[in-house]
Structures are given as structure tokens and as C-alpha cells.
Amino acid sequence: MATDMPTSFFGWVVFVLHQYGGALLQGAGVTLLLAIFGTFIGCIIGLLVGIVQTIPITERTNPGIKIVNKIVQFIFAAYVEIFRGTPMIVQAMVVYYGSMAVFQIDMSAMAAGFLVVSVNTGAYMAETVRGGIISIDKGQTEAAMAIGMNHIQTMCKVILPQSLKNIMPQIGNNLIINIKDTSVLNVISVTELYFVSKSAAGVYYRYFEVFFVTCVIYFIMTFIASRILRYIERRMAGSADYQLVSDPFADPTGVFPNNTPKKGGK
What we know:
The chain is mainly α. The chain contains eight helices and two strands; from the N terminus they run ααααααααββ. The protein has helices at 9-53, 63-84, 88-103, 109-135, 138-146, 151-181, 193-204, 207-237, and strands at 242-244, 255-257. Helix 1 crosses helix 8 (207-237), helix 6 packs antiparallel against helix 8 (207-237) and helix 7 runs antiparallel to helix 8 (207-237). The radius of gyration is 25 Å and the shape is elongated.
């Protein structure tokens, strides 16, 4: 059988694709599922934490609300610092094995993986959202409050729609990072791309060839994800041919499309 084995690098690459291509693609599918789902849930967590962290507290605020706010702020701050200050690989071990040892919860490896990616992403997104909210001019918050909006209404209808465009690059960055960082979940036996690659490489001890294929698959996934996200960013940016209205009373929206024909146009 030894004479049937490839002798060149590209021969081994073709052999690996023939023998393990399906398994590698299945592992890539698990990687994408973990990354996309974890990023989505993490963004929701980050939005909620970011909104709560920016709740305005004044001297006229009820003392009970102040106390509750400080407790919640402390909990959220601890959550952000802990999950940003520890490696995801350690978090995976703690969640997977700790769930049974401490809480007697028999959690599957996939469930632990989803949980770890989600809460880890949420910790980073919380700071991103907070920064995006702070970047919006305070006058808009004051104007919203002046017409009777509460904090939640102000966030949902005025601030977040604007800050979302600013933080969209970071959301995309987190997705790309999660596509790569899900590889650490192999320590709890999640059968994502790296786990499958390591298993395939150990059969014939051809680590270079197998992980060369793995590297290409990771690059293809991240490249496509980055291009899709850039397209979404361009769509969110809107048209480039808008200008401010010269007479604000003529159009209460404040902007209108610049339909001035170009030279030579009709």
C-alpha cells in the first residue's frame, strides 16, 4: 500500500481533499454556525449591556433606582472585565467542565461552545456599543428627552440607528475573529474545522499538507465574510449624492437628493 501513497506535496493535498474533503467541509460548517450564531447573540448581549451602561443618573433620580443601577453597573463591569481578561480556551474549559462539577448540568460540547462564543463576543460588543453611543452628539439625546422620550425610546429611535452604522465595522471584525477563534473549542471536543483537521493529520502524520488545506478554507471563509460585510456597510452608508437643504422649512427631513444633471446629461 505504501507504493500507492503520494510522494509530492500537491499529491498529498489532492489525496487529503479526496479522503477528508467532506469531513473538512462539515467541520467548516460547524465553525460558521458557531461564529455566526455566537456573533449574533453576542451583539444582542452587547446592545443590552451598552444601553444599561449609558442610563443617565442625575441628582433628581430616585435613591432606590440609583442603588439598583450601581449594582447592575458593577455586575456588567465585572462581566466585561472577566470575559475580556481571560482567554476563550480557558473559558471553554471552565464552562464545559464547571457546568457539571458545580451546577450538575450535563452540557453538550456544542452547547458549551455556543455559550462561550456568545458571552465572549457580548463582552467585547458591550464596550463597542458604549463607545458608539457616546460618539453621538449629546444634543440629540437632550432633544429626544425634551420631547418626552425615555431612555429606551431615545436609544432605540434616535441613538442606536446612528451608532449602528459606526460600530458595523467592529461587528464584522468580531465575526471574522470568531471564525478563527472557534478553533480553541477543540479542547472540549467540538468537531469544528480545526478538530477535524487535527484528526485527519494524525492518520498519516501529514500535518503540513492537511493544515495547508485548512488554512485555505479558513481564508476563504474570512475573505467572503469580509466582502459581504463591506457590502452591507456601503448599503448602510446610503447614497453619496445627498446635500443639506438650503432652506430647512422647505423640507423638514433636512436632506434631499441632488438631482442636478451632470454636464452633458438630460
